[in-house]
């Protein structure tokens, strides 16, 4: 009995061994660097043509898998974004320092100790607002070139909204401007006539045009006289600058005060700030809330290469204009921002928390909002003589 049991066990073991060896052996693992399914030419960089990436009908599953991997890699390289221009330095984020001034930049001299009339008048306005604070007054006339982004209510006391009176006696604010003296606002010349309407009112120092914001004490004044630049042509985008004389002087406060004009042709930094109450994107409604953005200054020769040819600019972008663009988020000035300021925000040397504003340009035109094209601004320093002759004519007569 025992012998028969052992014989049965032996036969079962032998049959299992024969059965196992009758099965085909498992396939070997794929090599770490499999050979290409075609002969590789070392003189050609892979991939060369897209059709070499597609397997034939007789290819194995392993070869088809490697084809799919190469196809994926090809698509990844094909869809890589265009590299940023090497001269385009992205704007700093809030709290980060500004990039240093361009190499070779030197702050212009003080012209034998004399300052322009617009600079002298700005100092007078600041002294009247802060009569006992010499540090603020000194900082207003001596600013660093590594400012920071301000983001708090009432930060732009020179900001003006240019209003038009409708047939229903309502005021619609369609443009921006900047207070530059007690009774003058500078804006774009094309803002002096919109749909056969001329501006009648200026609202200064406000945050929200839809409500009465008493915390910032905005002031609304009537426009007395409009001065368009004598060389302005409504069919062109050149000399797009105008002065609005107010019917009375503003009351200078910390919420309403003029901006200082930048009197040099050179700029100490490639970062500038634009703002307004307009739309934030093409074909959108105006926000009616004061918003600002930082832009990178684009050299004029580069701007001319990037902008399309327009009948309104037969000579391209001129030296009397400035280009600016946001290379990161494509933010832009838009409808309702025309005439508003393009400015430098520079901290004081003595008190870094005191930011001082220098007007370098006026929002003039662009291809369309939030496009990949730069926007163009009227350069303030090109029109200083004309501005001073109109704004401070009485003081000039005494010189």
From TrEMBL:
Its main location: secreted. InterPro entries: Peptidase_S1_PA (IPR009003), Peptidase_S1_PA_chymotrypsin (IPR043504), Peptidase_S1A (IPR001314), Trypsin_dom (IPR001254), TRYPSIN_HIS (IPR018114), TRYPSIN_SER (IPR033116). The gene is Dwil\GK22652. It comes from the Eukaryota. Residues 144-392 form the Peptidase S1 domain. Residues 81-113 are annotated as: Disordered. GO terms for biological process: protein processing. One of its GO terms (molecular function) is serine-type endopeptidase activity. It is found in: Secreted. This is Peptidase S1 domain-containing protein. Pfam families: Trypsin (PF00089).
């Amino acid at each position: 009995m025992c012998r028969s049991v052992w014989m049965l066990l032996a036969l079962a073991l032998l049959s299992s061994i024969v059965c196992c060896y009758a099965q085909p052996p498992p396939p070997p693992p794929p090599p770490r660097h499999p050979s290409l399914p075609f002969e590789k030419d070392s003189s050609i960089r892979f991939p060369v043509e897209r059709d070499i990436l597609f397997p034939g009908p007789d290819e194995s599953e392993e070869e088809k898998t490697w084809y799919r991997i190469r196809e994926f890699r090809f698509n990844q390289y094909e869809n890589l974004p265009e590299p940023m221009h090497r001269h385009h330095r992205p704007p700093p984020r809030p709290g980060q320092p500004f990039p240093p001034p361009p190499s070779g930049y030197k702050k212009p001299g003080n012209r034998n100790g004399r300052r322009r009339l617009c600079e002298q008048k700005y100092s007078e306005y600041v002294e009247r607002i802060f009569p006992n604070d010499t540090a603020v007054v000194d900082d207003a006339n001596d600013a660093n070139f590594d400012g920071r982004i301000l983001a708090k209510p009432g930060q732009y006391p020179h900001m003006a909204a240019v209003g038009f009176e409708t047939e229903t006696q309502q005021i619609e604010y369609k443009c921006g401007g900047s207070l530059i003296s007690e009774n003058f606002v500078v804006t774009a010349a094309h803002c002096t006539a919109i749909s056969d309407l001329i501006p009648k009112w200026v609202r200064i120092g406000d945050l929200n045009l839809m409500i009465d914001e008493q915390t910032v004490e905005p002031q609304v004044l009537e426009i007395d006289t409009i001065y368009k630049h004598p060389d302005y042509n409504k069919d062109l985008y050149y000399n797009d600058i105008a002065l609005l004389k107010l019917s009375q002087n503003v009351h200078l406060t910390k919420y309403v005060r003029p901006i200082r004009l930048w009197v040099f042709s050179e700029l100490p930094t490639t970062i500038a700030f634009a703002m307004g109450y307009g739309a934030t994107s093409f074909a959108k409604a105006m926000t009616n809330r004061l918003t600002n953005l930082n832009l990178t200054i684009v050299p004029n020769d580069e701007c001319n290469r990037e902008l399309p040819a327009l009948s309104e600019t037969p000579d391209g972008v001129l030296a009397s204009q400035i280009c600016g663009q946001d290379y990161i988020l494509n933010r832009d000035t838009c409808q309702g921002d025309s005439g508003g300021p393009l400015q430098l925000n520079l901290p004081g040397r003595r008190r870094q928390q005191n930011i001082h504003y220098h007007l370098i340009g006026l929002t003039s035109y662009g291809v369309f909002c939030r496009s990949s094209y730069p926007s163009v601004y009227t350069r303030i320093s090109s029109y200083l003589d004309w501005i001073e002759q109109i704004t401070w004519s009485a003081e000039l007569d005494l010189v």
